[in-house]
Amino acid sequence: MSETVDGMSYHVPDDLRAVRAFVTERALALGLPEARLDMLTLAVSELTTNTLQHTSGGGHIRVWVEEGRLVCDVVDQGSDRPFGRAMPSAEAIRGRGLAIVERVCDAVYTTAVPGGTLVRICLNL
């Protein structure tokens, strides 16, 4: 059985601190071990920063527990994300964010939704 879904919207870079605090507090309350908290925060920071750098209109984040894992959706007005790619070289100026998300989460899914894209990250509890 899943827990109640809780979420928040973000629109400007100054919102990112509140997003990280929201995700941290919610994840701890839902039972994510503290040892995994940094990985979740890193992944959420990368996804929400991408939203603000590459889309307009901000985004919305939701967090809940389902089937023994913490689930976090990041929804924005962006296009489909190119997951499944190699880590860019050390000399690359950009392009590491999504590769990092894939490596620190237990599962990553993406799908088109009306008006944008949903990226779902999962961390086992």
Automatic annotation (TrEMBL):
Pfam families in alphabetical order: HATPase_c_2
Keyword list, A-Z: Kinase, Serine/threonine-protein kinase, Transferase
Source organism, top-level taxon: Bacteria
GO molecular function: protein serine/threonine kinase activity
Domain Histidine kinase/HSP90-like ATPase: 13-122
InterPro entries xrefs: Anti-sigma-factor_SerPK, HATPase_C_sf, HATPase_dom
Full protein name: Anti-sigma regulatory factor (Ser/Thr protein kinase)
Species in which this protein is naturally found: Actinoplanes lobatus
